Amino acid sequence: MITTPLRSRKLDSATTSRTKQRDLLKRKPRVRLTGDSDGRWLWAAYQMGMWREKFSGNLSQDAFEEKFLELALTDGVSYAWMLDAQGKDGLQPVGLILGQQVLTGKNVDREIIEPFVEWFPWATPRNQVEATAAFLKYISREIKIFVFAPEDAIRFWNLFVRFGMVRRGCKMIDYFSRGEHAMLYYTVNK
Questions:
Q1: Do residues 83 and 93 touch, judged by C-beta distance below 8 A?
Q2: Residue 7: pLDDT above 50?
Q3: Which domains does the chain have, with CATH numbers?
Q4: Closest to 47 measured CA to CA, from 64, 35, 34
C-alpha cells in the first residue's frame, strides 16, 4: 500500500509570507485618507454606473458629492480611505474604503473597524489584490481590522491568509440577513 505523508496543519506559505508580501507591494500601491480632490474620482465612478441604486435619477456633480457625503455620515462611517494602484497612467485611485468603527474602549488595546470596499470600474483584479495588501499592511499598524466576507469573496480573502496578512475566524450564519453567510477575517498584532 502506498501512503502519502499527512499535510501539516501549519500554512504552507508561513515561511515565505514576507517575500510574497514584498512582491505584492513592489508596484507601490498606496492607502491614504480621502481629500477634497478625490471628488472627481468618485464622480467618474458614478458616471460609469456605480452607486446608481443608492442615488435616484441623474445627479449633477455637486448634488452627487453632497448626497454621497450625507450617505457616508448616516451610515456611521468613521474613516474614508482611497486605494491607489498602478494603472496605464501611473498611480491612480482604484477603490474607496469606508471604515465603520466596531469596538473601542479602555478594555480594547486598539480600535477595531469593519471596512466596506467599493472598487472603481477601472480597477483590475491585480489592482484589487495589491491595494488590499497595502491597506492591510499599513492600516493594521494602527487599527485592528475585522472583515466579514460574503461567500463569493472567501477565495479572495483566503489569498491574504496565505500571505500571513490576516487570519480566518469563524463562519457567521445569516450575517447579511438575506440567507447569506459570512466568514470573519481579522488582522493580528505583530
A1: yes
A2: no
A3: 17-186 (3.40.630.30)
A4: 64
